[in-house]
Design goal:
With 256 residues, the chain is of the alpha/beta class.
């Protein structure tokens, strides 16, 4: 299977599960996005990049902004479109596409947000270049995603369990990697915060319909990991663990 085919096969059939997922539909970061959107001009154009079930797009549209929601999964976009119509969001559009090749003109948006999406992209540096292209000078990009640890042992362990659970997973990036990729795309990081989310093993794997064999493999990884690793991720007896997450805010440099 080609990586480009995975979003629809992995996520199209799971769209409703992601729409209802508490991990994706709640969180202080989503509240911050909503509050920030409410303080911005209603003339602002915003892009939810890799919108998934549309939680970020709905938060921005609910505050009155003009919103475009882009995702590579037609199934996800259909759920997003239907939900937006049910909520009466008039200035709302959905777009099928990849982060590395955005179907928008230069300078189309003042604000781009990507939440729990970038770890699926094949080429994040190219995605950041594209985000920079479609942003106006001085525009903002916010990245919310699981963050790998700078410690290689923790990094490798997290990537392993993530890929076993979801074959479309590419990589959770480190804070240092994000900073470098954003800088290379012409952004200046202005703020970053970090926290953890408790991932309930049963709902985490059910949401992705992870095969039983892979679930057992993840359990084996945790069981065979060192005590240091298990303590770092606070792994419980049922396989639940703490996922490191971060929010990075950056501004596109103003060109002369």
């Amino acid at each position: 299977m080609k990586q480009s085919e995975m979003p629809e096969q992995q996520f199209g059939a799971r769209a409703q599960a992601y729409l209802q997922s508490t991990v994706h539909s709640q969180g202080k970061d989503l509240e911050e996005i909503s509050h920030s959107a409410g303080r911005r001009s209603p003339e602002l154009h915003a892009l939810d990049l890799g919108c998934g079930a549309g939680h970020v797009a709905f938060a921005m549209a609910g505050a009155g902004l003009s919103v475009s929601a882009l995702d590579p999964s037609e199934g996800m976009l259909e759920v997003v479109k239907q939900t937006a119509e049910q909520r009466g969001y008039a200035r709302f559009s959905t777009h099928l596409g990849q982060a590395e090749n955005l179907p928008f003109d230069d300078g189309s948006f003042e604000w781009v947000i990507s939440r729990f999406s970038a770890h699926h992209w094949n080429n994040v540096p190219k995605g950041m270049q594209e985000a920079s292209r479609v942003l106006t000078d001085g525009g903002e990009i916010w990245i919310v995603d699981a963050m790998a640890d700078e410690n290689p042992l923790y990094d490798t362990t997290l990537q392993t369990v993530e890929m076993l659970r979801d074959p479309s997973h590419v990589r959770n990036y480190r804070q240092s990697e994000w900073t470098a990729m954003l800088k290379a795309a012409g952004f200046q990081v202005v703020e970053s915060t970090a926290w953890t989310l408790r991932m309930d093993f049963a709902s985490w794997t059910t949401r992705m319909n992870t095969p039983e064999l892979r679930c057992r493999a993840i359990e084996c990884v945790w069981a065979r990991s060192s005590e240091e690793v298990r303590q770092h991720f606070d792994v419980l007896a049922d396989g639940s663990f703490l996922l490191p997450v971060g929010l990075i805010k950056a501004i596109k440099a103003v060109t002369a």
